[in-house]
């Protein structure tokens, strides 16, 4: 096993371990680490949606971004870039979030749920793979969102600066910030443990480029399983951890923060996978790229946050009782919009390494 | 035979896809790939090495020139 492979396995294994530890320290079950859920909680904490059970400024996200930012600075990989179909990326982030909140989790949490014995997550992962497979066909036939170009360095710092502001809001707790009194938002590990875990995962994710959607994509496109090793590591370590702690419970019914509606678990994650593969990576990777100075990825995260606000303000999100009709309609509409975006952006603006209209 | 691929500003998998097209078209020779982020540098290198091409990485300011050769 070479160094890079070990790094991605170490990143995945550490994430799996810390996820089990964070649940033991107070996070909701099978939600030791979930980029979609935590961004939804932050959206609620800022009052952008008013679903009382899911409001908290999650330090795991802040830590992840700060860790990736520090790592990118140390390795001199920080680049302020942007301008690759920025608003289209915002829309794709929005749609991916609708799908993830119908399923109740991002690709990372899907793996963690499965490692906790939640078989509904298996259905979701099949949907994710299906969505990625469809997106890969568009990539193969020339889909591209175009080139990003270098920007003034300051542009790349804004997103990480925003995380520092969130950290201050979490620590100062001004009265306009919402913290859930009950429900998943009220369940959390101590701030410093969550922040520390986020920092460690941020550094490792930046170094290893860990990405679930990228893993499935590379395997389908190039038979390259490199990134998938990271997710196998998350699964194995979290599974062993859950068995040791006694939190493993296999089945479909009665799983924590999950529902048993297979069709919508599948389609929700298919929407997320398709949108994410067009974006070039799952929400975790978008956070890391934003910390590395990619302002398109920063805007994608803003789209995800708007998605969380809309999903909860208009009652689209799934819950343990199932997926509301509005959420089902939103997923179908989302799939249609992703299809249109996928068609509209091919053939590529970039062909054989030469940009149309630029001649570079 | 020599070919150049400009994959600057592109996120994966596009740099890998463009490189793969060039490698497949050429079969052997030299392919120069210009990328602007470290993830693309690694992914393109991994693809080339897995197909038996030798990879040489040259830093050019904020960018990387990957020289892929196969005899």
From TrEMBL, chain A:
One Pfam family recorded for the sequence: Sulf_transp
Top-level taxon in the UniProt lineage: Bacteria
Key word Transmembrane present: yes
Transmembrane segments: 56-75, 87-112, 124-145, 157-181, 187-205, 226-251, 263-284, 296-314, 326-344
InterPro entries for the chain: Seleno_YedE, Sulf_transp_TsuA/YedE
Keyword tags: Membrane, Transmembrane, Transmembrane helix
Keyword presence, Transmembrane: yes
Designated name of the protein: Uncharacterized protein
UniProtKB/TrEMBL annotation, chain B:
Name of the molecule in the record: TusA-related sulfurtransferase
Recorded family membership: Belongs to the sulfur carrier protein TusA family.
GO MF assignments: transferase activity
Any Pfam family the entry gives: TusA
Classification via Gene3D superfamilies: TusA-like domain (3.30.110.40)
Keyword terms: Transferase
Source organism of this protein record: Desulfofundulus australicus DSM 11792
Lineage, broadest ranks: Bacteria, Bacillati, Bacillota, Clostridia, Eubacteriales
InterPro entries reported in the protein's UniProt record: TusA-like, TusA-like_sf
Chain segments annotated as transmembrane: none
CDD domains: SirA_like_N
All copies of domain UPF0033, residue ranges: 5-29
């Amino acid at each position: 096993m070479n160094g890079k492979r070990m790094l991605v396995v170490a990143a995945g294994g550490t994430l799996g371990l810390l996820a089990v530890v964070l649940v033991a320290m107070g996070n909701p079950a099978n939600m030791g680490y979930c980029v979609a859920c935590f961004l939804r909680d932050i959206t609620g904490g800022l009052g952008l949606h008013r679903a009382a059970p899911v409001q908290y400024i999650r330090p795991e996200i802040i830590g992840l971004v700060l860790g990736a930012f520090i790592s990118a600075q140390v390795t001199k990989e920080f680049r302020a870039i942007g301008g690759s179909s920025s608003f289209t990326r915002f829309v794709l982030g929005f749609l991916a979030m609708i799908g993830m909140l119908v399923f109740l989790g991002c690709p990372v949490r899907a793996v963690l749920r499965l490692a906790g014995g939640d078989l509904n997550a298996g259905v979701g992962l099949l949907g994710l793979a299906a969505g990625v497979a469809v997106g890969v066909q568009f990539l193969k036939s020339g889909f591209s969102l175009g080139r990003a170009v270098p920007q003034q360095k300051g542009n790349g710092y804004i997103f990480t600066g925003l995380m520092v502001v969130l950290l201050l809001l979490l620590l100062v707790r001004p009265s306009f910030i919402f913290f859930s009194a009950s429900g998943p938002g009220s369940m959390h590990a101590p701030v410093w443990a969550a922040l520390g875990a986020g920092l460690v995962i941020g550094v490792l994710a930046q170094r290893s480029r860990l990405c679930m959607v990228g893993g499935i994509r590379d395997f389908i496109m190039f038979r390259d399983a490199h990134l998938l090793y990271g997710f196998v590591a998350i699964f194995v370590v979290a599974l062993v951890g859950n068995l040791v702690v006694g939190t493993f419970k296999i089945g479909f019914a009665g799983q924590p923060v999950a529902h048993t509606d297979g069709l919508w678990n599948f389609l929700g994650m298919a929407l997320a996978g398709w949108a994410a593969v067009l974006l070039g990576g799952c929400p975790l990777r978008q956070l890391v790229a934003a910390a590395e100075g990619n302002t398109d990825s920063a805007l994608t995260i803003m789209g995800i946050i708007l998605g969380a606000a809309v999903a909860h303000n208009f009652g689209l999100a799934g819950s343990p009782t199932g997926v509301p009709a509005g959420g089902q309609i939103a997923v179908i509409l989302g799939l249609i919009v992703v299809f249109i975006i996928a068609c509209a952006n091919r053939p590529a603006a970039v062909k054989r390494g030469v940009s149309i209209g630029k001649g570079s | 035979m020599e070919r150049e691929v400009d994959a600057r500003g592109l996120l994966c998998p596009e740099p890998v896809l463009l490189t793969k097209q060039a490698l497949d078209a050429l079969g052997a020779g030299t392919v120069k790939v210009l990328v602007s982020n470290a993830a693309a540098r690694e992914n393109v290198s991994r693809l080339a090495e897995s197909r038996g091409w030798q990879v040489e990485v040259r830093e050019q300011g904020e960018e990387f020139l990957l020289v892929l050769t196969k005899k």
